[in-house]
Design brief:
Structural class: mainly beta
Number of strands: 11
Helix content: 10-25%
Largest sheet: 6 strands, mixed
Shape: globular
Distance between the termini: 15 Å
Radius of gyration: 16 Å
Strand order of the largest sheet: 3-2-1-9-10-11
Order of helices and strands: EEHEEEHEEEEEE
Strand content: 35-45%
Length: 196
């Protein structure tokens, strides 16, 4: 598959608080991997306008979509990318449990949601990404006292065995001024690792 931008987004919950709408223009993104918890039809329609190739897995609050898969695998370049909401990973967000999930799915990259907090790291030759909550939806149990969720999403650009991840986060300064920060993280599959 030719290189194209892939939007990784999830845990929307609050569609009227969508701080990134202006950044997500139709025609720039080739595919969307949604990690669940869209929770309403308007959010689905908005994502569908951005890219017609919309892949969604079931989140724990997607009660009106009982037929969604719990996980899926797509291939970009030479990378197999698995994605799931994360509520089926026990304990939630646990690195060893996520590694087991990635091995079970036979993927190089595992995307998961549920914690509403951005994370990206490598473990045993695999790359793990949680895009956080696109709307900054509150979540119990994941944030220290006084810490607020930071709205975030990710764009992936895959070429061959290299994935470049662009992380978009809405940050608020002490004066209440919001700005979008972008960070870049790269992952290269180990060339000694056999292709799936």
């Amino acid at each position: 598959m030719a290189s194209r931008l892939v939007l990784v987004i999830g845990d929307l919950f609050i569609p009227d608080r969508a701080p990134f709408k202006k950044l997500l223009a139709p025609g720039k993104i080739g595919q969307i991997l949604c990690l669940g918890n869209l929770t309403d039809k308007e959010a689905y329609e908005f994502l569908r306008q951005i890219a017609p190739d919309l892949q969604i897995v079931k989140g724990n609050f997607d009660v009106d979509a009982p037929n969604l898969a719990l996980s899926k695998v797509v291939t970009h370049g030479s990378l197999r990318i698995g994605f799931t909401h994360g509520y089926t990973v026990i304990p939630p967000g646990d690195a060893d449990s996520l590694l087991i999930t990635a091995r079970h799915m036979d993927v190089d990259v595992l995307l998961w949601g549920g914690t509403h907090k951005f994370e990206a790291y490598e473990l045993e030759g695999k790359f793990f990404v949680n895009p956080g909550s696109a709307t900054g939806a509150f979540s119990t149990g994941w944030f220290p006292d006084g810490e607020e969720p930071i709205p975030s999403f990710c764009l992936m650009d895959v070429q061959g065995d290299v994935l470049v991840l662009y992380v978009y986060q809405l940050k608020t300064d002490v004066n209440g001024v919001e700005t979008v920060g972008v960070e870049k993280v790269s992952f290269r599959r180990n060339t000694n690792q056999a292709a799936p």
